Amino acid sequence: MVLRVKKHMAKQYQLYLMILPAVIYFLIFHYGPMYGIQIAFKDFRPIDGITGSPWVGIKYFERFFKSYQFWRVLRNTLLLSVFQLAAGFPVPIIMALLLNQVKNMKFKKLVQTVTYAPHFISIVVLVGMLNVFLSPSTGLVNHVIRLFGGEAVYFIGKPEYFRTIFVASGIWQNAGWGTIIYLAALAGVGPELYEAAKVDGASKLQIIRHVDVPSIAPTIIILLIMNLGRIMNVGFQKAFLLQNPLNAETSEIIQTYMYKVGLLQMEFEYSTAVSLFNTLINVVLLLTANRIAKKFSENSLW
Amino acid sequence: MIKTNVLNDDKVFDIVKTVILVTALLLVMYPLYFIIIASISDGTAINTGNVWFLPKGINLEGYHRILKDDMIWIGYRNTIVYTVVGTSINLVLTILLAYPLSRKDFSIGKYVMIFLMITMYFNGGLIPRYLQVKNIGLMDTWLVMVLLNSVNVFNVIIARSFLKSSIPETLYEAAVLDGCSHATYLVKVVLPLSKPIIAVLLLYYGIAHWNEFFTGLIYLKNEKLYPLQLILRSILIENQMQDAMVEDLSDTNQKDIGELIKYGIIIVSSLPVLVIYPFLQKYFVQGVMIGSVKG
Q1: Which of A185, B127, B188, B231 could make an S-S bridge to A216, C-beta 3.0–4.6 Å?
Q2: Cβ contacts (< 8 Å) between A132 and chain B: which residues?
């Protein structure tokens, strides 16, 4: 017996050793920085280090809340992500429901192969593509507009177009990819359900409504919760790359603001305070979404 | 009577479905196709809007100038190094973490999962991380490009689900009877059976490294260390052509060739991904499906 326990422990130590490198990585690059969050409440002096710098309370949070940027970046962040979610979330679901009805395997495969592809394009290349296509003098989109007798538009330089460009390009890039998970869920629907529906004389639309949609509802809810939890992290890199002084009115979001004050103006404490505010809202949204999901259905993240 | 109605409804539905899917197909495909034809067309023809469906006046000057440029080659080389080394690190750490977590008898497994999940939703933010990297002395070194994103929690969960669901527990019991330790079992039994998940991890991590630009932007000052994406950014987005690209050109030519260079460079930088894409497709579909198994 004792021998067995010893043997078991000896085997467990190998498991401990295996996870060690990753645990060290997380401690250094994830938990280490969490310790650094305290500089949001301090006047950071590099010489004294994080621990040695004096506490100043919520000075930097107050500064953020009182700054003229506060409402602007908060509104831009929320609007951008709400639009993105409202416009982008249903598209893969609809596409998957339609694709699931396609009997011609070649056509189905073609649509899938082509619509997945943009997912693998880098964010730099995507924004580069937007720049060349939307260019007022040489871009494809304005050539089309001129072809129909319209006036060329400087899309990237107009604040009123920023959200549309951001959301539409996001759908272009990720809608196809998003269908995979729903198609997988649809593949798991039992054939007897379809048979029964057909016997009852259901039309294809009725089958989608009464068989397909209820079957993928759990997947939809889980993905929705995960998206809500990320609502404050709206594609920071894309917003950052698409941004220019002309469209800042609508393109400045919390994260781009945090980057600018932090790394360009070197206001470490202020930037950390802004970022902490962002994270806190995120966590609250995630917890709320999860609670709502739990209340109305059996599906939740935990 | 009812039957014909259903048939009619279905017919209308089929037409609407086909129209929607074909439209989606064209909307995604045309911009990609246009970039290819534009990159080999005459610069003036593109800029005046005369290229639509076929390339006009084949002109490879764009590619010629791209390939002549040193910075492109440096970026390419750096990105290949970062991708190969970074992905190897990713793979080893992820498997070493996912295997113990997939074992029911691993006593602290639950706590390790919580330890990992916390980092998905909560992090120190940009500046504390920046200060940490600085403290460790990784600023402006190539190591920062391969170490910073060593493990992705989502990928760990995918790998763990795969190991849990695809490798029969009886294999482990048999191996233990033969006196096999976890390490030997992992190497001799689990890894050979895990080819699909290894392919998926290679793909996800590899693409992430290939497309990475932000880490370079923040932590690298030395241009010789720049990844390809950072060089792309200056050309595509900030409109800064490298000198070698546009020297000996008049102003009008510069504009035309400049556009050609932009289209060409999109192709050149995405080429490796485009080439391997068809071979990898079955793996990434598999990957999402494995991942959708709730772990």
Answers
A1: A185
A2: 236, 259, 262-263
Task: Give the separation between CA B97 and CA B114, rounded to whole angstroms.
Answer: 13
Chain segment A107-118, per-residue pLDDT in tens:
999 999 999 999
Q: How far is CA B47 from the centre of its chain?
A: 31
Q: Is residue B112 part of a domain?
A: yes
Q: By residue range, what is the domain housing residue B246?
A: 70-295
Secondary structure letter of residue A265 according to DSSP: S
Q: How many domains does chain B fold into?
A: 1
Closest by Cα among B139, B125, B119, B215 to A270: B125
Contact A35/B123 with Cβ under 8 angstroms? no
Enter the DSSP assignment of A30. I
Q: Which of B260, B161, B112 is nearest to A20 (CA)?
A: B112
Residue B12 lies in a domain: no
Q: What is the CATH number of the domain that holds B275?
A: 1.10.3720.10
User: In this structure, is residue B232 part of a structural domain?
Assistant: yes
B77 and B135 Cβ atoms separated by less than 8 Å:
no
Q: Is residue B100 part of a domain?
A: yes
Question: Does ipTM exceed 0.95?
Answer: no
Rounded CA gap, A116 and B130, in Å? 34
Contact: A21, B93; criterion CB under 8 Å: yes
Task: Flag if A36 and B128 touch (Cβ within 8 Å).
Answer: yes
- Tens of pLDDT, residue by residue over A49-58, are 888 899 999 9
Region of residue B239 (phi > 0: left; psi between -120 and 50: alpha; otherwise: beta): left
